[in-house]
Input
Amino acid sequence: MKTFKMGGIHPEECKFSAGKKTEVISLPKQVVIPLRHYSGKPSIPEVAKGDMVKVGQLIGRADGFVSANVHSSVSGKVVKIDNALDAFGYKNPAVFIDVIGDDWLETIDLTPKVKRTCDLESSEIIKKIAESGIVGLGGATFPTHVKLSVPAGKKAEVLIINGAECEPYLTCDHQLMLEKGEEIIIGITILMKAIQVKRALVGIEANKPDAILNIEKWAKTVEGVEVIPLKVKYPQGSEKQLIQALTGREVPSGGLPIDVGAIVQNVATTFAVYEAVQKNKPLIERVITVTGKSVPEPGNYWVRVGTPLSHVVEKTGGIPEDTGKIVAGGPMMGRALPNLEISVAKGTAAVLFIPSSESGRGKVQNCIRCAKCVFHCPMGLEPYLLMNRSEKNLLDELEQNRVMDCIECGSCSYVCPSNRPLVDYIRYGKLKVGELIRSRKVQQL
Output
């Protein structure tokens, strides 16, 4: 069974919410819709205090190419535009809307009928995706229209669809593949048309046999789409690892998937593309997983963007008594939350409750030179060395040792017997080296 060649780990899966049908979370009294979804510049407000808005209405216009439109997920009254805390701990501009009813734009097709035919040309599809504010829903939230716009001198040869969902606990993509298989396949054909390729590979880990069968069933109705079961291994959902697993091609250091002829999209992003192009529905809601070892009824839920996590948690059973940490996302790459007043963003995949018995860090001890971090690094790096250089602020050595290639998967920290915060220091080092690289480019202008 296919997988990537270098490194990787096998954390406890904990897929407690697997097979739980999606439920709809009711609307809150107020939403706080971020104007920045992590990757790219914040959008520019298109509304002002006192404005009345409908579901699907543009409230933030993309500011430049690497930016994304933002739409209202509710109908109601704009009460203010102000900074709001996000899951990364930063304050970013957001639109605060008091919810009044649930009045949708008339242009959005709300009928359940599946629309199979797309008559748009490649450029029209990409434009529609940009207008709809679609971003990558696998975690990075990079604007989808940017990834689909192949640079001059490059050529896309294959579309890669990420159905791996390798993070422990998460099942939102798994359930989406079970419930929206036909729509996902149509979304794949739309993406193939957008980047003008005739081949698409869907990678799904073998711990989701029902999803594999369902997507295979619908893939048989179109040409050029192949579903490939993958060995269960983390971080298989990372772009470079997934490309290697499915095609054998290796993205070069500092390179992008398009350098080896590939463009990667998550299955949830693919479904959002279907809704945008075929139903004229912008990205205003997504499936998230609410889970944890002490959660009585883990599940998967449709939630509108901007919904406070406190509302989601209240509607799904509340906070378990033994909770020591609440994480937005999975345990490997998610972010610990300071509170539950943070809103669901486009990239929010899960709310994870970690028991007190598992939430604390072990005592940090000296490195014993066991090399486990090196053996398990999927990028072939030396995490112990990168942490050491980051501690000493040796930025030139960090850059020479490819710190920018780190995908921050956390495999090194997971296997370290000395409980060293490897990925934390490497993340800091990447931040500082990134600043150094940008300043160098500015000086060259």
